[in-house]
Structures are given as structure tokens and as C-alpha cells.
């Protein structure tokens, strides 16, 4: 019986060590809001012709997850999309990167930093006009949308 008690005691001591490895971050939907949007279009040869629609897509995705959107200077953070693509062999190839940028304090100074980042490579797409909305929606839902409300 003493062996059982010792074993139970050892397993109880090990559990807090596992909990320390869980991801902990300070982000909530409330403290990243309102979120602005910006993009860089480095696509060539007609690979992305609907760039002007990206802000509306981002707004709908963010608001669909309960995250406030702004087009003004009052943004606490900015969702930034970078598209780099060129046409070769009839299709477009390249990459897309999306990040959430915000101010942090570093060495006593406020600086803009990337808080979260995701990306994707693509090949053989006729156009990215259908790919970009899927990318924005996926990143907002699977990453920012999982933040707690408060």
C-alpha cells in the first residue's frame, strides 16, 4: 500500500511542470481592438487584381469573430497582408504572409512589433482573387478568433 501512495505523490508533483509548457499570451479580442488593415501588393502579371477588396474582406472576417475593425488612426493593432506572386507557365506562384502588428515596449521605448504571423505558399493559381479571401478568413478565424473576449 505504501508503494501506491508514493506513486500517487510523485505523479501529483509532475503535473505542474507540464502545465508550464502551455502557450500563454496576453492577447484578447478586446485588447487588440480596434484592428486596422493594410496590405502590400507585390503581385505581378495580373496574379492579384482584386487587392482593393482586401480591406472589406478583412473587416467582415474580423467582425464575424467579434473583433472591432477601424479604418482610422485609432487602430490599436494592424492586420497586415503581404502578397508576392508572379506568373510562370500559365499559373501564378509565390507566397502570402499575414501578421498582426502592435506597439510593445522594448528597452523602455515603444516600438511596432509583429505579435502573430502566418503565411502560405501557392503555385499554379490562375489568379489569387479567390485565394486571398480564403487566406484572410482562415487566419482570422483560426488564430485571432480563438483569443478570449476579455
Please explain how this structure is put together.
With 150 residues, this protein is α+β, with helices and mostly antiparallel strands. It has one domain. It has helices spanning 2-19, 29-32, 54-64, 131-142; strands at 35-43, 77-88, 91-106, 109-125. A 4-stranded mixed β-sheet has the order 1-2-3-4, with helices on one face. β1 (35-43), α3 (54-64) and β2 (77-88) form a beta-alpha-beta unit.
Entry summary:
The chain has 150 residues and is α+β, with helices and mostly antiparallel strands. It is built from 4 helices and 4 strands, in the order ααβαβββα.
List the helices and strands and how they pair.
Layout: H1 2-19, H2 29-32, E1 35-43, H3 54-64, E2 77-88, E3 91-106, E4 109-125, H4 131-142
Parallel strand pairs: 1-2
Antiparallel strand pairs: 2-3, 3-4
Helix pairs in contact: 3-4
Keywords: Signal
Signal peptide: 1-19
